[in-house]
Amino acid sequence: MESLRNHIITRTGQKPILLDAFYESHNEPLPVIIFCHGYKGFKDWGTWNMMGSAFAKAKFLFIKFNFSHNGGTMENAIDFPDLEAFGNNNYSQEVQDLNDVIDRVLQSDLPVDPKRISLLGHSRAGGITSIVASRNSSVSKLITLAGVSDYECRFPQGDALAQWKETGVFHVKNGRTGQEMPHFYQFYEDFEQNRDLLNIKKAVQKLTIPHLIIHGDADEAVSIQEAHDIKSWRPETQLMVLRGAGHTFGASHPWNHHHLPEDLRQVVQCVVNFLK
To answer: What's the pTM value of the predicted model, to 2 decimals?
Structure first.
């Protein structure tokens, strides 16, 4: 198995992006899966390395990366030392990051089949990947994993929104690290300015490529109803409901086992079947 770990993508006027690649040595171009982590996520979370190896064994080139403003740094990609960057993240930034990653992967020396670029987005990134897939002609297939159907409803509402505007920041506690993670008001301002672009429903309805939704019916973070909503907006989309599966499909961080949890193993098999 070949791997490229913690490769730094530099960009003019933008924060760098940290990227990994997994693939088995091959003499021909490989279909590509670009995986995007969700909210408070990072590329080295839990089982994502094991999942990458599983896709590589199935003859895919698996790419995963940290969004540039996820709070990690080039030196510490796991424990969110850069909370200033986290506070300045927004959905538009993540859309830009993913488009830049696609461009760099296509230009790289990796064994890329440019006609088979698939996106795999978990949770919040289900929306990001849907938006990018609806506009980026390089994307040939889309898989959303416990994906969200709407961004607006996730912002503070009413008095809480007014207070956020007044103070300029609100905090969310990170249960793993204990950090109070900031969201600066620019997050909401950017959404308002780019509301049409960041509308997941419109993006899904605009899709012209195959789309697979995978969702657990015991998801404690993103309701299974959101998967049914997305399916209703584009009936030809495939929906796979995993009975009893939660938001991370049995995985947790850190993951100290030698095998994928059964639910995530099923996810990998579903994705492989869909892409092949």
So the answer is: 0.98
**pLDDT of 64-75, one tens digit each?**
999 999 999 999
Pairing of strands 2-11, 14-23: antiparallel
Here the tokens at position 204 are 């899904």
What percent of the chain is modeled with pLDDT above 90? 98
Q: From CA 99, how far away is CA 113, in angstroms rounded?
A: 17
One-character DSSP codes across 174-243:
-TTT--EEEEETHHHHHHHHTTTTT-HHHHHHH--S-EEEEEETT-SSS-HHHHHHHHHHSTTSEEEEET
pLDDT in tens, 157-210: 999 999 999 999 999 999 999 999 999 999 999 999 999 999 999 999 999 999
Pairing of strands 30-36, 14-23: unpaired
CA distances from 27 to 23, 104, 110 (A): 12, 21, 11
- CA atoms of 155 and 238, how far apart (whole Å): 29
Residue 133 tokens read as: 């897939």
Residue 138: other Cβ atoms inside 10 A: 16
Say which CATH superfamily domain 2-157+199-275 falls into: Alpha/Beta hydrolase fold, catalytic domain (3.40.50.1820)
- C-alpha–C-alpha distance, residues 247 and 59, integer Å: 26
**Is residue 37 within 8 Å of residue 47, measured between CB atoms?**
no
